[in-house]
Design brief:
With about 600 residues, the chain is of the alpha+beta class. The chain has 15 helices and 17 strands. The protein is flat.
Length: about 600
């Protein structure tokens, strides 16, 4: 009986179609499920992180601006509390007082004046001709005469330029008087404009009437009602920074607003940024995830088609099953061998590198022969050969490190001369220091003991410390002093700069992962954390001492040959942070 060829084709076609659908559905379900969960948690955590960062940024600058205003207010209050109306109304005395204030605080105050209870300015010091000005009808005067201390809104007034008044009220012979000062608007405006993040994030200040108190490049001409609502919301929350996301229309993009109160609730600091800028990383991640998903979908469908065809082919070719199974076993063995070969590639690279280093040494020996001594390029040949040998050794170290990582083994440790290692790393920074107007000074102690450690890891520690010092000195130039020594059974490397120093509040956190004081996009916050981990694993430690305006001093302690890490205590000492306000004494000669 002849087999029904048509039925066979229909059967195999149906079987292949069902197998294809099953493979695709089974493969897509976990892909969609896992991808959705990961993206959801990433978006949630990143959104919270961005919101927290913006809230922290606004709150920090809000406190900074409030502190600035209160300090200026206290300066004026001090004068009214310390001197009488008669003394302050003496223009010679007032000018002397004004000069002292400007000498102490810079050009923050533009002028200083004394106004009697009728609004007449009886004494004035400043660049404007306001000696006999009358403020009886001015809004700020009517408000200031009722309060002990007062800060006005920004207005043009008699001088015709934006400014605001800081005033305090005093009493003389039963009548009130006002000591008022004008704050430099441009200085105050610059403090606010420093609040920037991303491409569209910036800040401005408004009063309760939604009137601008600082300059801004943002278009807020249509946002009066919105700004008033943000101000009212901030007042209801008693000063906490509020984050709002407001949807835009077809012509205005969705924006994020952060609002914090200033000046006892009379002003509000408002930070605005487009959502697509604030959460650009999320959108970028979504596009990447979409691309990966599409690529995965194509791969799944392709593999499903291939697998279904192969399976049907195997069923149809029953007589060739054994041969195909044998072939599959062979292919599996080849794949396993390929995996082992991949693990050995790094090892095989060492062979040509070793030949390269050996040949470089042989050529170096040839250059010692008399026939090459008169060559004009002899020094260049030797330098190039030295570089070939050095880079060959470096390649060997890199491949060894790759093998160590693949086999999860310890980094190769060896006996290291501290001074030679330091000199090699310092040489990497010679050109960079020159163009940054930074001078690197090295002071090496003699007869230092060997240390038993990974040279590449120690080089990474020293590289990070010198690089950080260069970053601190790059704006102004300066000096980096690198010293070696021995202290308490430890070899010590000291990296000291005369840069601006690290604020006391930041010292406790500089070894935390991802903590950085650099602008967004300029730093990862991992350098010092990695240094801490490397030294901690060696049984060593790292300390820091810093003084604002004087500089920063890092000290690295490494067990030397007489105290190897294997002989160190079970719990190696943690990195210490020296919270000192005085400069630390160096090792060796001052």
């Amino acid at each position: 009986m002849e087999p029904n060829i048509t039925e066979d084709k229909t059967y195999y076609h149906t079987l292949r179609r069902n197998m294809l659908i099953t493979v695709v559905v089974v493969s897509f379900m976990p892909l969609i499920f896992v991808s959705g969960i990961i993206l959801y948690h990433f978006q949630t955590s990143y959104t919270e992180k961005v919101a927290a960062h913006i809230e922290s940024l606004v709150n920090q600058h809000r406190l900074q601006i409030d502190t600035f205003l209160k300090e200026r207010q206290n300066d004026i209050l001090f004068l009214t509390d310390s001197y009488t109306f008669r003394e302050l109304s003496d223009e010679a005395f007032l000018r002397k007082t004004f000069d002292i204030i400007r000498k102490e605080h810079g050009q923050v105050f533009q002028d200083l004046g004394v106004v009697d209870h009728e609004g007449r300015q009886v004494a004035y010091v400043g660049p404007y001709r306001l000696e006999k000005a009358s403020y009886a009808g001015a809004d700020w005067f009517r408000s200031a005469i009722k309060e002990h201390a007062y800060i006005s809104d920004v207005f043009s007034g008699l001088r015709g330029t934006p400014h605001f008044i800081v005033a305090s009220r005093g009493e003389w012979n039963g009548n009130p008087y006002i000591l008022r000062a004008t704050v430099d608007f441009q200085y105050f405006n610059r403090v606010v404009q420093e609040i920037r993040m991303g491409e569209t994030g910036s800040a401005f200040i408004v009063n309760r009437k939604a009137e601008l108190q600082t300059e801004t490049s943002l278009d807020i001409s249509k946002d009066d009602e919105l700004l008033r609502n943000l101000m009212e919301q901030a007042l209801k929350t008693k000063g906490d920074v509020q984050i709002n996301v407001l949807e835009g229309d077809k012509t205005r993009a969705e924006k994020l607003y952060a609002t914090g109160l200033l000046n006892n609730g009379n002003w509000a600091l408002i930070y605005r940024q487009r959502m697509n800028d604030a959460f650009a990383e999320i959108y970028r991640t979504w596009w990447i995830a979409l691309a990966v998903f599409i690529a995965g979908a194509v791969a799944i469908v392709t593999m499903a088609v291939i697998v279904s065809r192969r399976m049907i082919g195997r069923i149809k070719a029953a007589d060739g099953e054994k041969e195909m199974m044998n072939q599959q076993v062979i292919e599996s063995n080849r794949l396993a061998s390929l995996g082992e070969m991949a693990a050995g590639i790094a090892h095989e690279i060492n062979n040509p590198v070793a030949i390269m280093v050996e040949e470089a040494g042989w050529i170096s020996d040839l250059l010692d022969e008399a026939e090459f001594h008169e060559s004009e390029n002899l020094d260049e040949f030797r330098t190039s050969l030295g570089q070939i040998k050095k880079q060959g050794i470096r390649c060997r170290d890199i491949t060894h490190k790759l093998l160590s990582f693949a086999r999860r083994s310890e980094s190769e440790r060896q006996l290291i001369k501290i001074n030679d290692m330091v000199e090699e790393v310092v040489g990497l920074f010679s050109h960079q220091a020159k163009y940054s107007n930074v001078r690197i000074v090295t002071k090496y102690a003699e007869d230092l003991p060997y240390v038993h450690a990974s040279q590449t890891e120690l080089q990474q520690v020293l590289f990070n410390l010198i690089n950080n010092a260069l970053d601190a000195l790059r704006p102004t130039g300066g000096k980096i002093v690198i010293m070696t020594g021995c202290e308490e059974n430890m070899a010590v490397i000291e990296v000291k700069d005369n840069g601006p120093g690290i604020p006391r509040a930041n010292l406790m956190r500089i070894f935390d992962p991802f903590y950085t004081t650099k602008p967004v996009g300029k730093g990862t916050g991992l350098g010092l954390s990695i240094c801490y981990g490397i030294l901690n694993n060696m049984g060593g430690k790292i300390t820091v001492a810093s003084s604002m305006g004087i500089g920063t001093n890092f000290r690295v302690f490494i067990p030397h040959q007489d105290m190897l890490p294997e002989a160190a205590p079970d719990s190696p000492p943690a990195a210490e942070t020296a919270l000192t306000e005085t400069h630390q004494s160096p090792i060796g000669s001052p």
